[in-house]
Amino acid sequence: MERINFFVIIPIYNVEKYLKTCLDSVLNQSYRNFKAILINDGSTDKSGEIAEIYAKKDERFILINQANGGLSLARNAGIEYVAKIFNQAGNNIANKWGGGN
Q1: In this structure, is residue 101 part of a structural domain?
Q2: Domain count, the chain
Q3: How far apart are CA 46 and CA 32, in angstroms?
Q4: How many CB atoms lie within 10 A of CB 33?
Q5: What does the pLDDT look like over 59-99, one tens digit per residue?
Q6: Is residue 55 assigned to a domain?
Q7: First-last CA distance in the chain
Q8: Left, alpha or beta for 26 (phi > 0: left; psi -120 to 50: alpha)?
Q9: Is residue 24 part of a domain?
Q10: Which of 31, 30, 47 minimizes the C-alpha distance to 39?
Q11: Tell me, what CATH number does 63's domain have?
C-alpha cells in the first residue's frame, strides 16, 4: 500500500475558467505522496468534465460528483471520503497519531 502523507480537498463549482490552472499546479508539485479529492458540486459548466480528465490521467486525483449543496457540503464530502480511508485502515493509524485506545 502506498504511503499517503496528506490529502488535498478541492471543491469545484462552475470554475472551468480556472480549474486547469489549479489542477496543473497540484499535479506539478515535486512532492508525490498525496491524494487530491476533487468534489464536483453539481457544476453546470465543463468543470466536471475537466476534473474527470485529471482523475483519469493521474491516480492521485479522486473525483466525487454530487448534486449542488454548497461549499461546506462539498468540503464535508471530501472529509468524509478521507475518514472512510482512515476507518478502513483500522486502528493502526489512530494508534500512530495518538488517537487509539
Answers
A1: no
A2: 1
A3: 27
A4: 10
A5: 999 999 999 999 999 999 999 999 988 787 765 555 554 44
A6: yes
A7: 24
A8: alpha
A9: yes
A10: 47
A11: 3.90.550.10
